[in-house]
Amino acid sequence: MTAPAYNDSSQAAIPARSGQSKWLDRGFRIVTQGFALAVAAVLVIIGIQVTINAWPAIREFGLSFIYTSAWNPVESVYGALPMIYGTLVSSFIALLLAFPLGVGTAIFLSEDFLPAKIRTPLAFMVELLAAIPSVVYGLWGIYVLIPFLKPIGGWLHDTLGWFPLFRTDYIGPGMLPAGIILTVMILPVITAISRDSLTSLPPSLRQASMGMGATRWTTIFRVLIPAGISGIIGGTMLALGRALGETMAVTLLIGNSNNFNISILAPANTIASLMANQFAEASGLQVAALMYAGLVLFLMTLIVNVLAELIIRKLKPY
Amino acid sequence: MNSSHTAESNAQDQKSKEPVFRTEDLNIYYGDFLAVRGVSMEIQPRKITAFIGPSGCGKSTLLRCFNRLNDLIPSFHLKGKAYYHDQDLFADDVDPVAVRRRIGMVFQQPNPFPKSIYNNIAYGARVTGMQIDDMDELVEKSLRQAALWDEVKDKLGANGLSLSGGQQQRLCIARAISTTPDVILMDEPCSSLDPISTLKVEDLLQELTNDYTIVIVTHNMQQATRVADETAFFNAEASDDGKRYGFLVEYGPTERIFSQPQEESTQRYVSGRFG
Amino acid sequence: MTSHSQADSRQPDQNAKNITRKKGSRQSLGETAWTVVAGLCLLTALVPLFLVIAYVLVQGFSRLDVAAFTRLPPPPLSANEGGFANALAGTLIMVAIGALISVPFGVLAAIYLAEFSSGQIPRWIRFATNVLSGVPSILMGVFIYGLLVLPFFGFSAIAGGAALAVLMLPIIVRTTDESLQIVPQSVRWASLGMGASKFQTVLRVVLPAALPAIATGLTLAVARAAGETAPLIFTALFAQYWTDDLLSPIASLSVLVYNFAAVPYENQRELAWAASLILVLIVLLTSILSRWATRKQVY
Fold it and tell me: For A106-120, what is each residue's pLDDT tens digit?
């Protein structure tokens, strides 16, 4: 009954946790937290690392690096305008083609146009497009896509040659095949994320619209797409980020010309393929210039990816 | 208390004797599973008809036949006949979209679109191709009819999802009546609402019965006695293979169903002595 | 309250109770047209998949002989057909190094996110992880070039493996984090309720429960790394011969494809197709296997 008697009873007392066990729990937490912070740190360190290595070029050329178009290792003069233009335009071509295709595919695979037994494997196959290595797309592009595009490129030049974008004749490697291969590579990104956002909408939404006498496609256009727009736009931004930084397939197909040419039928270059081509043999200021170009690419993809994440997170209605 | 409304309506509408819906030995299946068996009934115009009964008795399933919303479920099929104003609802040449334009629906969970309050209402007019001269007027009228206008008139641009549950449900009702349907189907419209919101919605139903035929599924027997002119009691029982299916037990004026039921199971259910 | 005559005046058309389909109406034609358009989008998306796989199969299969797996890459124009033995070994070595670094790193980080997360820090880390997975893979190479190649090791298997590790890291963190989150909270409570410590709970209950899903994520990360080229071209470079230490330039299948893709020499090009076939097979097999494994998951 008395307190001391209670304390004496080893049965009733809560046994103190061993110091070792407590220490283990705390240590475990600290260790995992350290690794988690390190993952985030990698992103920051990449930025710092590239900036430090690019510093000599930044000091030498400043912002003119971005809007001048000389790339001359012999005279140590570097300007990345052709590559920035090539990066943006090839990605834009890809986005222009992949966005409607990807969203259309996502709609077709999220609605019950086909029985689920066929739909699921088809969705899987679209996702496989993202798994095929970039360099394999490049190899395939050289021997299949470039010859295939010859009549199309020729036609574009013959009929629309007055337009600056089609000013030059199609000679094979160039912005057009690079843009098309990028389309294939980013299409599964757009499709997968758009499809996710469409299928995760509550079924009551579709019922509400159909119940009012809206047709299936009216429901899709007026209710489902607006409700899932955050995923569709976010997915498209992520796809843009991928297109901007995609390297191997583009390097093999774009022709790697460092001269500025506005035509999408002419050989061009992107920042990523410039680095792939020159890094291993570069030295001195050229390394710094390549790092500077890399920094530009890093910032471009960083902005696009951060925006994509924010859009996917913040704009969700549900 | 509805008798005066009904008599008035009858006097005004010669054709009101013609039932809005008529079913003949309707059997509803999901795949091989028989969900509802042998329902034959008529739904009268400009009245509130309540479907009551225990869970799994198929009352919601039957309700969704009337606007062919069950079409969205791939395994759904049926035997028997269902008529809407003497037109076979499931005939090959019937356009389910046209059906749903005539027959509105309010769901168990409020399901406003993630759009502004204004656009939630305007949606129906836009998708059904109504010729609307003044959309603002339609929005106001619909919201007034749904007794929501005073609460939202200053924030028509706000997202429909930002309203409270009861307000959301009244928004859904406003949305349903904005297209002036012939019939409004309501699938347990108050089951997710608090008592005060429930009362508001019930008052609203009484007003709407001037203009609309309403069929309401409810779990709540007091609600049926409060709002319904006619009541249909459904029950479920196990077939030989042990699967439960629903069927219509008894159908008639609400007062009779609750005071002088003819079936024992109805008696047990309405007096609350049911499982 | 509006009278119903007023309501009637708003009805969309006179024949309001008619519910029959209007054959060939603009509405139903529009519906069909959009469905066809969406279906064509899907078909268009799948055409390149079939074309790429078919070409790689046809072109690569003829050269997939014993020599391909046992010999070294051929010099141009030689009668010697050669093989990609050293590149295959190089890919395996570098992926192994990459996994060795990134798997413990990523799994531990994910354990923190899923098991100890509270407040703003984990949100920021998840955000950074997602952004990191969007950083172009060539920049992973640039990063390692500046971090390891220039100051320390030169072009080497270690540097190549490290670049692949950076590439795999965000994938591993994200899939592990998601796998752990799927494990129901009740499982953790059950273990804690029996007096287990947090450490024991995570190690003995949560991790084993999530293991199939984690393994799937790891497999996909490895497959992705095996096919990557960009981070390797200026970290591991390439080698025509066997490499006997981890600090010298080393060959890999993907860089071999890149180097031999656009050459005018038939024997090297054939080998590029054969190596592509191996890469595609690795990717297809792991994707299908992991898909099959996710179906068998506990939760």
Answer: 999 999 899 888 998
